[in-house]
Model the fold of this input.
Amino acid sequence: MSIVIKAENLGKKYILRHQKRERYVALRDVMADTARRWGKTIINPFAAAREMRPAKEEFWALKDVSFEVEQGDRIGIIGRNGAGKSTLLKILSRITEPTEGIVRLKGRVASLLEVGTGFHPELTGRENIYLNGAILGMTKSEIKKKFDEIVEFAEVEKFLDTPVKRYSSGMYVRLAFAVAAHLEPEILLVDEVLAVGDAQFQKKCLGKMEEVGREGRTVLFVSHNMAAIRNLCTSAVLLAQGQVKNFDNANIVINEYLKTLSQRNFKTSCLARNDEAGVSLSTVELINENGEVLSAAQSGLPVSIRLIFDSVKNFDKLLISIGLNNQEDIRVSVFHTGLTESELKIKSPCSEVLCNIPKVPLIPGNYRLSIKVMSRGKLLFWLPQICEMAVEGGDFYNTGRLPGEWGGICMIEHSWEDRYEKED
Amino acid sequence: MGEPGKYEIIIEPGKGAKQYWRDLWQYRELFYFLAWRDILVRYKQTVIGVAWSVIRPLLTMIVFTIVFGKLAKLPSDGVPYPILVYAAMLPWQFFANSLSESSNSLIANANMLAKVYFPRLIVPSSSVIVSLVDFFISFAILVILMVWYRFVPDWRIITIPLFLLLALFAALGFGLWLSALNVKYRDFRYIVPFIVQFGLYISPVGFSSTVVPEQWRFLYSLNPMVGVIDGFRWAILGSSAQFYWPGLILSFILTFIIFVFGLRYFRNTERTFADII
Done:
């Protein structure tokens, strides 16, 4: 296998301007600023020098990034927002140039950072297929050859000669993705584009991506959907603060990501204190089976909510309830010791209470926890919406598929079968 | 997998010139598609469509004929005044439209610039094509006008493409410059309409450049459009217009310089477009 992407010490620096809100500069501001500075220099030569400085600050979106990708590899790029994932793709696709370092690419590169780039609302579907194809780097003859396939994939036969401004948003996205999906580059760079469209179409897109991978093409894929990455990618790169934290087998990197994700997001020290009773709830955190602290739970995987109490005496006959509300403030579920008939105790000086969830049935998103703790009918803590729990998309159904917006608020395990009357 | 080594790409800060011209060739179809899009959109969105490129020069010609020909009674060198004006109106409109289209083109396609790679040069240069189409439509009016006034041009009419090319390079030279500046300093979009409006009066559109005193003629020719417009009049109106050769040569030289420097400025700033647009 040959190496098709080789990046050495890549770095990308941006200059941040603090004073200005606009991304671009207006000549009038430049002239006004210069005039003002001159004016100040005349009045007070030392003040001006002091004032000029804070307007600019360097920011390295990527720093010392080196990696190699072999032909046919499918690499997931993961990391938090602002970790440099998109900047990396932009450099590899030559949209922006690195400040330092070098990349060698072998083969035709196509990037898909957005679906429907360059679509014009006034043009018809047919015209936009040609235009968008050309923008993505296809030649006219290639588009012609693939035209019927694209139309079939997008399911827009009837509307080919309608301006796309009359398309429904679903049709629009389908058409846009269809064009991109029929690119045939040796290296394909994809940024979070599967997050669009309805679930059925997402499924189709994932299928198409798998097909691309099977054909031996190299794919770099940025996504927050861990299920999709697990499914599509052979290995993954974890970026944090512009640097490569890990580059390994996809499962290993995903697990590391979920751990590092936010040790600060979830864990909170000394949430509440009940001085009268002599007990405090110091920590609420998520841990996995191995007792490692997680920043987020993942759909389909086990997780435990750990409550750590510090106390001066012992408490028994505990009643603990953890209510779970989603972002629409709908109570999704409750974990309650009364329901499970669990007998728990807190012992001085420090105890842990674990609430084990064998398979998280929640769709990705943020959930707020409300915690109530009682002992012998006496209230120790009532902490409504005390902290947030993030849930990342995971492989709940072991198929790599996640329901879309229409999928309700939780996932329920199920299976299907078909039965027929025997034909004679 | 064919021979992937064939397209080896090296991404390095401040480099890429070698690949650039090869890429430009590879993306030549994009040039065609963008021009085609602009033309389609232009005639789809407007109510009167094609008529627009006829009405504009025609009305301007009528106004100029009345103001300069009838009221100011400027000399027309023995040519019908409407034809004198229209022969200048053609290259001027082409220049003005190309200039405004190309200097706005990068901003208008900002989204594409931020999301896809292609040689950025394609954007401003393909936007000139729409103005070229307008030019040909307006040219048809000139033919009608000439038939109406029974004005027969001589062999010189075949030199028109040469002057058209001169106007194109002048427009593109300025256009590249302004489009790149427009990305960085958005107030250039207010400067362009001003240049266009101002240029109409300092170029010999409404009058013949023979009205300019001889000793100022060379200085006047520092405006590259003077050479283009004089050239158009010379080619269309024939022997009746005298020709000022130093002016044309100066136009050629200036246009060349503007184009080369415009291209250089564009190429140097192009790499940062995606970061600041």
In short: The CA atoms of residues 34 and 387 of chain A lie 49 Å apart.
